[in-house]
Design goal:
The structure is a single chain. The chain is α+β, with helices and mostly antiparallel strands. The protein has helices at 5-13, 95-110, 143-156, 204-207, 237-262; strands at residues 30-34, 42-48, 51-62, 73-79, 120-122, 126-138, 159-163, 170-179, 187-194, 197-200, 212-218, 224-231. The protein has a single domain, classed as GHMP Kinase, N-terminal domain (Ribosomal Protein S5, domain 2, 2-Layer Sandwich), CATH 3.30.230. Strands 1, 2, 3, 4, 5 and 6 form a six-stranded mixed β-sheet that branches. The N and C termini lie far apart (43 Å). The model has no long low-confidence stretch (mean pLDDT 96).
């Protein structure tokens, strides 16, 4: 059988997939490793099928922004390594890398997952800033879900580094026992529309056949914090409703998988 867009589309119409999964089934294994980097304040490696993503959290003390003098900040970056996919090239971030970072960033930021006020050290002067770096190790599809899970795991495992009380210098080699003020735990799930069917966790081949996709970031109570549409085809109101319900259910599934590795 020749694997192409038409083949994947025809199979989807029959509620079938190339690897035998149902349309709403995640690949196996789903693995999460925590604290994989001693140089990061929090880190993780997530594997969904053959897709592998790493995330690291770094903390720095910076001057507060003028419009938010009582808050710290958060930033998400994504790097698509050429070794993870032959289509990726070294150099400035590609459109795909920028979108990946923005989708993960928006889910965290709009959920107000991190209490930014608790990051403030001296109002109007200095505060902690959180930087989340996402790196692809192997891209076999569905980077949004894998990166979102990795980012959440890294944030949950992050501890503040120690600070010299006299000089104010950060000692990155030693961590305190104080965790980041993570008050919500947003998780993105991306649902793909292929030939009028909805599927989750596509492989790289399946990603080449989708008509539209919608990433839904939800908190642990199911509250939606962000939506991101992709693809050239439109989605009906009914399809969006179905996608949200499916995304919420799959987010609960991914949280249960993550909890296995946090115990």
């Amino acid at each position: 059988m020749i694997v192409n867009k038409d083949t994947i589309s025809e199979l989807a119409a029959q509620n079938k997939r190339l690897d035998g999964r149902s349309l709403t089934e995640y690949r196996k294994p789903i693995n999460v490793e925590l604290n994989i980097s001693w140089t990061a304040e929090g880190s993780s490696k997530v594997q969904i099928g053959n897709t592998i993503v790493m995330a690291g959290v770094k903390l720095s003390i910076e001057k507060t922004y003028n419009d938010t003098p009582n808050e710290g900040g958060i930033m998400v970056n994504a790097e698509l390594l050429p070794l993870s996919n032959p289509d990726y090239e070294p150099g400035p971030p590609s459109i795909k890398a920028i979108e990946l970072a923005r989708v993960i960033d928006r889910g965290i930021r709009e959920a107000k997952a991190v209490d930014l006020k608790k990051l403030c050290i001296t109002p109007g002067e200095k505060a902690w800033f959180v930087i989340v770096d996402i790196i692809t190790i192997n891209d076999d599809g569905n980077l949004f879900d894998a990166a979102g899970l990795a980012a959440l795991a890294a944030l949950k495992s992050a501890f503040y580094p120690t600070v010299n009380k006299e000089t104010g210098a950060i000692d990155y080699k030693h961590k305190t026992k104080e965790k980041l003020p993570l008050i919500k735990e947003p998780l993105p799930v991306t649902i793909y529309k292929v030939n009028n069917k909805l599927l989750v966790d596509p492989t790289l081949e399946e990603e080449g056949a989708y008509d539209a996709r919608l990433t839904v970031a939800t908190d642990d109570d199911g509250t939606i914090s962000a939506l991101q549409k992709g693809g050239t085809e439109p989605l009906t109101a009914e399809e969006i409703s179905q996608i949200i319900d499916l995304a919420q259910a799959k987010a609960r599934f991914l949280r249960s998988e993550l909890d296995k590795f946090l115990k």
